[in-house]
UniProtKB/TrEMBL annotation:
Keywords: Membrane, Transmembrane, Transmembrane helix. InterPro entries: YkvI-like. This is Membrane protein YkvI. The keyword Transmembrane applies. The chain crosses the membrane at residues 38-58, 79-98, 110-127, 139-157, 177-195, 204-222, 251-274, 286-305, 311-333. PANTHER family: CONSERVED MEMBRANE PROTEIN, MEMBRANE PROTEIN. It comes from Oceanobacillus bengalensis.
Length: 336
């Protein structure tokens, strides 16, 4: 039970901690000053939503997201959100691939090297279908979360920051709603694809509560660190590098590798959602669908990493508010 629960927990965290989140760009886009309460609300909302999605997926024994999506939004809106979730996964995976290019640029390499590496790695990963993704999540994510927390806590200590010094100032609490909504849609896609593999409700609780707590704690410490370097963030495509510049080059290398793996796991989750949906309409091998999808994504990465996040993420955050509301109120309206 614990092993399976942890496996799904890492899948959820891996889906959420991608280029936008791990780099700090997504957190700064939504949170920033006076956001402690917003992050607490996000933690609660996120855990509830994951529980509802996994329980529906478990009951339906689903292998792709459409049955789960239909249960959440209803028959009338399922076609609209089916199209939107597909384009969401497509565009955010483009963001991840662009993020790999931006990571390469941080070391004075061409962005095309970073893009080529992640594309090839994704093709190799999906030669074993979903099993490769679950295995790499369990291997990489403890290192990523541990490394990120270590840097953020060290930065907090070195800068003599006080995590709870502005708790009376919480005017940005409403940011919890679009931020949670933004991160929910990919989870419907990914968790909807593993319904036939979940074996008990206890696994669901471990995965949902555990992932919510991890993301809530990391988000709070990370956001507090970014507030201290607010004036410098505009100068960096990836805000995390504004924190890492205070530390030895070896730490920069390690965290850059971890950041790339965060980008990679989220891109893999997006590809999983897209390909499992497409496979309903074709008998082509899984890996061949992956290759075709990636080829169509590459030209769109020329838009730029930070531009994609600042434009796409707020739009999806607003559009997904209806899905968030349905998930939070699911037990009530389903009973009625």
């Amino acid at each position: 039970m614990w092993s399976a629960g942890m496996k799904w927990m890492f899948l959820i965290v891996g889906t959420t901690i991608g280029a936008g989140y791990a780099s700090g760009r997504e957190l700064w886009q939504f949170f920033g000053h006076e956001s402690g309460l917003a992050i607490l609300l996000f933690t609660i909302f996120f855990s509830i939503c994951c529980t509802v999605i996994m329980e529906i997926s478990y009951k339906k024994k689903s292998t792709h997201y459409l049955p789960v999506l239909r249960e959440i939004v209803g028959e009338k809106l399922v076609k609209f959100y089916d199209v939107m979730i597909f384009f969401y996964l497509f565009s955010t995976t483009v963001v991840m691939i662009a993020g790999s290019g931006a990571t390469g640029q941080a070391f004075n390499y061409s962005k095309w090297w970073g893009i080529a590496v992640i594309v090839v790695a994704l093709v190799v990963l999906f030669m074993k279908n979903i099993d490769g993704l679950l295995a790499i999540n369990q291997l990489i994510l403890p290192l990523l979360i541990g490394g990120l927390l270590f840097i953020l806590i060290l930065f907090t200590y070195d800068q003599d920051l006080h995590l709870f010094s502005h708790m009376s100032e919480q005017r940005n609490w409403t940011a919890a709603f679009p931020f949670t909504a933004l991160n929910i849609l990919p989870l419907i896609a990914v968790l909807g694809a593993i319904g036939d593999k979940v074996t008990s409700k206890k696994e669901i609780l471990i995965a949902s509560i555990g992932s919510g707590l991890i993301l809530g704690i990391v988000s709070f410490i990370y956001n507090n660190s970014l507030i201290q370097i607010a004036d410098e963030i505009l100068l960096y495509e990836i805000p995390l590098f504004a924190i890492l510049k205070h530390y030895p080059f070896e730490i920069l290398i390690f965290m850059s590798v971890m950041l790339w793996f965060a980008i990679f796991t989220t891109a893999a989750s997006g590809i999983l959602g897209i390909v499992t949906r497409i496979s309903e309409f074709t008998n082509k091998p899984f890996v061949w669908i992956v290759i075709v999808v990636l080829i169509t994504m590459i030209p769109l990465t020329t838009i730029g990493f930070s531009t994609l996040i600042s434009f796409i993420y707020p739009i999806y955050g607003i559009l997904n508010l209806y899905v968030l509301t349905r998930l939070l109120l699911f037990p009530l309206w389903k009973k009625s």
